[in-house]
Amino acid sequence: MPGFRSALFYQDPRAALAWLEKAFGFELSMLLEDAEGNVAHSQMTFGDGVVMIGQEWSADHRSPKSLGGRNTQTVSIEIDTDLDAHCERARQAGAEILAEPETQFYGDRTYRCRDPEGHIWTVSRTVRYVTREEAEAASGLKITGWR
User: Fold this and answer.
1) How far apart are CA 51 and CA 42, in angstroms?
2) What does the alpha-carbon distance between residue 102 and residue 112 come to, in Å, rounded to a whole number?
3) Residues near 123 by Cβ (< 8 Å), separated by ≥ 6?
4) Distance between CA atoms of residues 60 and 57, nearest Å
5) pTM to 2 decimals?
6) pLDDT score recorded for residue 130
7) DSSP alpha helix (H) spans, 4-131
8) pLDDT digits (tens, 9 = 90+) for 101-142
9) How many whole angstroms separate alpha carbon 41 and alpha carbon 9?
10) Contacts of 32 (CB under 8 A, 6+ apart)
11) Cα–Cα distance between 14 and 66 in angstroms, integer?
12) Mean pLDDT throughout 24-45?
């Protein structure tokens, strides 16, 4: 299966699975458990996307909660439903909203949040298609390549 997948590590992956379902509507598609019932590996789907959720297992595979909140990536979710309602759903599930919903110069409406263990998520929905020239004019940036 071609494509990219992200793997996120949590101190409590079972709680993360429940939270991601409640906050974002992700669906559990695979769960591997050890003899004690601990999550060894799992995968959740959303549309065509897959994210792997696992427990911390080495010094290089840790939750932001174990690292003073530091992140090395932001996971992005593209939705086709009401972004403001999605943000409210995440807020009600306990997400810390870092950036309220706002329409960006490139035509997407976005918000950014932090999950209970500190992973940062950016959620977006395209609300208006803009040309490269329009985006350059609005941002003051020189853009090479465009959708």
Assistant:
1) 8
2) 10
3) 24, 76, 77, 79, 83, 86, 87, 90, 110, 111, 112, 113
4) 8
5) 0.88
6) 95
7) 13-24, 83-92
8) 999 999 999 999 999 999 999 999 999 999 999 999 999 999
9) 10
10) 39, 40, 41, 42
11) 16
12) 94
Paired with 43 in beta bridges are 30, 52
CA-angle at 87, arms to 69 and 129, nearest 5°: 110
Residue carrying structure tokens 């003051």: 140
* Beta strand 49-55 pairing with 27-33: unpaired
How far, CA to CA in Å, does 64 sit from each of 8, 39, 59, 72? 10, 18, 12, 9
Sheet of 39-46, strands arranged across = 6-10, 49-55, 39-46, 27-33
Whether the CB-CB separation of 65 and 55 falls below 8 Å is answered with: no
Spatial neighbors of 38 by CB under 8 A, at least 6 apart, are 55
Other C-beta atoms within 10 Å of 90: how many? 23
Name the CA dihedral angle for 63, 68, 70, 74, rounded to a multiple of 10 degrees.
Answer: 50
